[in-house]
Design a protein that fits this description.
The protein has 7 helices and 5 strands. The protein is an alpha/beta fold. The chain has one domain: 5'-nuclease (Rossmann fold), CATH 3.40.50. It has a 5-stranded parallel β-sheet. The two termini are 23 Å apart.
Length: 157
């Protein structure tokens, strides 16, 4: 059985990134490499919240990033997700938008959240807080990671 990955907004955004700074190029190339080589090993999901974020503003690659996100199964935003978001906000875990991503992934039992948001999501200092809050809610905490770190496991004798 393939493990599940919630694709957060920054993944389609960086796939179509056009900025020329070395860090932006590195993230774009890493995202494309993951999409090409690692994606087939996982079941991908996203949400209407991601679609909404990608629709905001005008930027190069917007139509392509939207099409990429819309090609994945969408997890439904149900009342239980809204309740989880409220708890995350009350507990000062993360800001509203990011709370939706974590709530969706947690509620639907995603194994991973794939993101380039290292300030609020793929942040080692947030991991313990997320684990504590999710344990209180009776939820497993997904592993929040970047494309550079979510690699399939291979074993050699």
């Amino acid at each position: 059985m393939k493990r599940s990955v919630y694709i957060e907004t920054t993944i389609p955004s960086f796939y179509y990134e056009v900025r020329h700074e070395p860090e932006m190029i590195a993230r774009r190339e890493s995202t494309r490499r993951w999409w090409r080589e690692e994606r087939p090993h996982y079941t991908l999901h996203t949400s209407a919240f991601v679609i909404g974020e990608l629709q905001e503003g005008e930027y190069p690659g917007r139509p392509e990033a939207l099409a990429m996100a819309e090609s994945m199964p969408l997890l439904e935003i149900v009342p239980a997700v809204e309740e989880i978001v409220s708890v995350y906000l009350r507990r000062k875990l993360i800001p509203l938008g990011d709370a939706y991503h974590l709530a969706m992934a947690s509620y639907y039992g995603m194994h991973f959240v794939l993101t380039w948001n290292c300030r609020h999501l793929a942040n080692a200092n947030k991991v313990r807080h997320l684990q504590l809050v999710n344990t209180e809610l009776g939820l497993a905490a997904p592993i929040v990671t970047t494309p550079d770190l979510l690699l399939t496991e291979t074993y050699h004798d």
